[in-house]
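[stage:ingest] chain + small molecule (fe (iii) ion)
[stage:ingest] validated
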Amino acid sequence: MNIGMSRVFSLADGWAESRHSVPAEHPAAGVTPVHEHPDATWADDGPTRGVEAEVEDGAVLSFPQLAFRFSDKERAFLDEHWADPKAKNISVRWPAGELRGAAGDPARHAELRALIVRYAEYSESLALRLFPHYRGRLRRGNSSFRPIDVAGRETSWRKDDTRLHVDAFPSNPMQGTRLLRVFSNVNPNGQPRHWRIGEPFAAHARRYLASYTRPLPGSAWLMHRLGLTKRRRTEYDHVMLQLHDHAKADIEFQRKSPQAEAFFAPGTTWVVYSDQVPHAAMGGQFMMEQTFYLDVEDLQRPETSPLRTLERLLHRPLK
Ligand code: SIN
Ligand code: FE
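[stage:predict] done
[stage:export] tokens:
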């Protein structure tokens, strides 16, 4: 189902003013669509299944009736003081399952961890129902609870997630592996998670490939050797980091590229390939997030991946 939840930016508008534009009847041309689904359960009996093509084509799948519920006792965690001020998120790292980034009363950390682990399990069960093709292939990445208000996050332009970007990390090269994310807004005060969503990946890549510069020979080996990257940065990672940085540094692009606003109300869960869909978090507080990894070959249609798209555009392998 294609819905008109997006608010459209006029090309002539400035950024701030256009946040208050009227809702569009149809998603803006050239903008990633948000597809709404009616599921109200995380378990296997929900109605939506076999929608690999939708998410691989770069849509955002939104479930406005799929809430992640906190128990009465867990509601005490809806307070930013549970996050270590130095960390953005409270997370559980796999495979060991240790809790990171938590502050506050250590006696309650086991309970906080259990809440995040429950989210990991629910999202996994949802993802495997939505995408049965990924069964046995999807790998669990970090699980997080994000209690910090987006509006209050001060940071450098490169880390500024209020600017449209595709996800790519300097120290954690993906080597082509996909980043599938399941988000859920758990805000108790009615506040939506406010995103901007940008253009399809191929159009986004074409915008910056003309100014693309290749990595220096030996640099990937050296960065890995010095411990600056967790594994070798492939040319794929190098291109993705340039897309990420060039987009965030490009004020014209931020203001005027095709984009739409999405407001994910509390109780909404949404699923997206965040390495493919340009996105920006403009507002909101209290969100759950689960990352999954998937090898390109394990997609239903590997040709839709950023890796294969970039290889087509550059006419060579990027391994
Ligand atoms: C991001 O992945 O860029 C941030 C998403 C969010 O905080 O809503
Ligand atoms: Fe991001």
